[in-house]
Structure formats: C-alpha cells, structure tokens
Design a protein that fits this description.
Elements: E1 5-9, H1 16-25, E2 33-37, H2 43-49, E3 56-59, H3 76-82, E4 86-89, H4 92-97, H5 102-114, E5 118-123, H6 127-131, H7 135-149, E6 159-162, H8 176-193, E7 202-206, H9 211-218, E8 225-228, H10 235-246
Helix pairs in contact: 5-7, 7-8, 9-10
The protein binds 1,3-dihydroxyacetonephosphate.
C-alpha cells in the first residue's frame, strides 16, 4: 500500500509571513505525507517550524556538485545539512527557462540521491508532443536519460511526478483518464527496468490541481498524490486537498 503524498511547490512565491502562516494553519497529516518545496531562502524557516512534525521540507532545485565555485547555486548536501529531506529535479520550468537538459537533470538527480535526499523527478510532455501522439515517448526519454546515468538503476526512496506542461499554471488539469493512463505507463516502464519496485514507487500528478479536482484524480490506481503549484499558496485550499487525499 503506497502512502499518498500532497506536496506544495511554491515556485518563486512566498515570504517569511507565509511560512509562519503555514506553520500555524497547516493541518497535520494523518495517513498521508505532506511536503513543502519553498524557495531556497525560506527552507530554513520551514525546516525549523516543522522540525517536530511529519511534514518534510525540500528544495526546488540544486546544482549537480556538492560544493565549489558555482556562484548563486546551492547543493543537495547543503539542503541536507539544513534539515531538508527532498529535492525536486527536472521541473518543466527549469527545463524550459533555465536550460536544464536531460543530461543536467540526470546529474542533478544523482547528486540529490548521493546526498541522502529523496529526489522527486518531474517529467511531462508539451502540448505539441501530446497533440502529435508522442506524449509517452517524451516522458520515456526523460526517464531514460536519468536511468542511464545511474550506476545502479533503482526507484527505492525516489518519487516521480507526472506534470504535463500544458496543464501547469493553465487552470486546465489533465482529466483523470489522461493522468491515469500516463501514470500507468510510467509504472509499467519502471517495472520493465527493475522489477520489484513497481508497487512501492509513488507517482504524483501535478498541473492545475485544486481542491475541486483532487478527489476525482486521487481515486485513480496510479495517482499516489499531487505536486501542487498555485493552489498550494493558500493554506485553506491546500488543507482541503490534503483532506481529499486522506478520505
Ligand atoms: P500549478 O498547480 O500551478 O498548475 O503548478 C503545477 C506545478 O508546476 C507543480 O510543480
């Protein structure tokens, strides 16, 4: 039985006041994991606030190396040192706007796992890829790039987030059928690579998740939780999404 996850990706939003607000108002999860990915500047505040709770805090992005002359970057080792437990990697905004190629994503993924953090690998197709019937090929290419870079491919203590680019920030979430179909294919893909982890691997859906659509998505067999962007900035709505996942 996979434990469901509700994860907040705050992107370049938030403030110390929002951190404080979440630490007071977020309803503690019962049967699910709750993770928050704030900006690097707000990691420390949330780690301190949630130290005594089950809520885990992670970075949205790290560089590939543990330390060195990389002005402006942070490393997975530093996130770990601060008390962070996870890191996103391969988010489509990083791929599209900051040049995170499949190769860079693979290196970052490895640095996150090597530092002892849990990587949350984001994959997803563009609208063009979906409309040309190559959605799964695009996702498979992103998975293959990371898997080929590992010495020993395995998915234990790792999470995949399926985030179709056309659903991110558009208000148009994938239908439950589309999300389920792709996430089933992702699980089959993982199974072909390394049997045994098929049932344990958690696959999240992200892209315009809201309190109003969480319930219909979470009942799908291969949707194990959500990576929520815009709706995660409102603690009441985020609590409602957590509630929908729990019940
Ligand atoms: P939205 O929920 O704002 O569509 O963003 C999804 C996302 O990118 C989460 O990583």
């Amino acid at each position: 039985m996979r434990k469901p996850v509700v994860a907040a990706n705050w992107k370049m939003n938030g403030s110390l006041e929002l951190c404080e607000h979440f630490s007071c108002e977020l309803v503690r999860p019962e049967a699910s994991d709750v993770w928050i990915f704030p900006t690097a500047l707000h990691l420390r505040s949330l780690v301190d606030s949630f130290r005594e709770s089950d809520i885990a805090i992670g970075a949205q992005n790290v560089w590939c190396e543990p330390e060195g002359a990389f002005t402006g970057e942070i490393s997975a080792r530093m996130v770990k040192n601060l008390g962070g437990q996870l890191a996103l990697v391969g988010h489509s905004e990083r791929r599209a706007m900051f040049g995170d190629s499949d190769t860079v994503v693979a290196r970052k993924f490895k640095s996150i796992a090597d530092a002892g953090l849990m990587p949350v690998l984001c994959v997803g197709e563009t609208l063009e890829e979906r409309e040309s019937d190559s959605a799964f090929e695009a996702v498979q290419r992103q998975l293959n790039a990371v898997e080929e870079a590992w010495d020993c491919p395995d998915y234990s203590h790792k999470v995949i987030a399926y985030e179709p680019v056309w659903a991110i920030g558009t208000g148009k979430a994938a239908t439950a059928e589309i999300a389920q179909e792709m996430q089933g294919l992702i699980r089959d893909h993982v199974d072909r690579r390394d049997s045994g982890e098929r049932e344990e691997l958690r696959i999240l859906y992200g892209g315009s998740v809201k309190a109003s659509n969480a319930a219909e998505l979470i009942v799908q067999n291969d949707i194990d939780g959500f990576l929520v962007g815009g709706a995660s900035l409102d603690v009441d709505e985020f609590n409602e999404i957590c509630e929908a996942v729990k019940s």
